[in-house]
Amino acid sequence: MKKCVFLTLDETGDFVIDDEHAIGPLEALGWEVSTLSWRQNLTPWSDFDIAVIRSTWDYWNEVPLFLDTLERIDRATRLANRLDLVYWNLSKTYMRDLQETGIGIVPTLFANSLQPDFPARYRRELGVEEIVVKPVVGANGEDAYRVSADLAQDQLETIAARFVKRDCMIQPFMTNILTEGEYSLFFFAGEYSHAILKKPAASEFRSQEEHGAEILSAVPEAQLLERARQAIATISPAPLYARIDFIRDAGDDFLVMELEMIEPSMYLRMDPQAPARFAAAIDAWARSA
Question: CA-CA distance, 45 to 229, in Å (whole number)?
């Protein structure tokens, strides 16, 4: 029997993980599925025919160790997504590459450090009153800050302290995140699978479920689906899985907020057919080696 392992984290805590929805469909295709921490050393990775990076949502605190582990796994078996995609997608500077291919992104500036007086400069450069600051390497909204013009000096100092000699990205605060929400579209082996709408909780701007966001099934309008297909088409060969996040802009178009190919939550529970599609993609991807 073919063996697949889903890579996860040691302690799930408050994280919402729904990878188990794909286990039954994979077993129906002749796979034995295990779920192991990416940190484990007891079971040889060579025991598996494929290792799929899933809920490794603590890696950003130990990036060198995470990458070293993935390199060992990649030498022992097939890793999904591919290691070169992991390296490219690890830093959100990939947004520059998307923009250079003609993909519309939320305007993004990058800095390798911040001082407490940073807001004035970036508000001026972006031509907005409010900005969002977040780390270039990170996930789950950790150390993401909404910075308004009236933010107190002590709060600015606290934010700047989080980014002393730490790469960060600065974007305009997109008001539609509050009025409409953020769309996530999921692709398996380059093919569209399903979509959700994430609506932040009251007094929040972060769209992660762990921060109280409401998660709704969504049917993307034609323009949104076309923008997503254009973005995924820039990645060749197509990744086994990808999540693309969009926000509607003031001109009623859709801009990429993020393109995640390392460990995105797939929200398989939100579409009855999504687990089977994911399982079929894994099976086909493994057989195509």
Answer: 33
State the pTM of this model.
0.94
- Adjacency order of strands within the sheet including 168-172: 109-111, 168-172, 131-135, 145-147
| H/E run at residue 138 | none
Radius of gyration of the chain (CA): 19
Q: Are strands 50-55 and 78-80 parallel, antiparallel or unpaired?
A: parallel
- One-letter amino acid of 105: I
Task: Pick the closest to residue 283 from 76, 54, 84, 49 (CA basis).
Answer: 49
Laid out side by side, the sheet with 241-248 consists of 214-218, 191-199, 182-188, 241-248, 254-260
* pLDDT, tens digit (0-9, with 9 covering 90-100), for 221-274: 999 999 999 999 999 899 999 999 999 999 999 999 999 999 999 999 999 999
DSSP E strand boundaries for 67-164: 78-80, 109-111, 131-135, 145-147
Q: How many CA atoms lie within 13 A of 36 on its CB side?
A: 20
User: Strand 2-8 vs strand 31-37: parallel, antiparallel, or unpaired?
Assistant: parallel
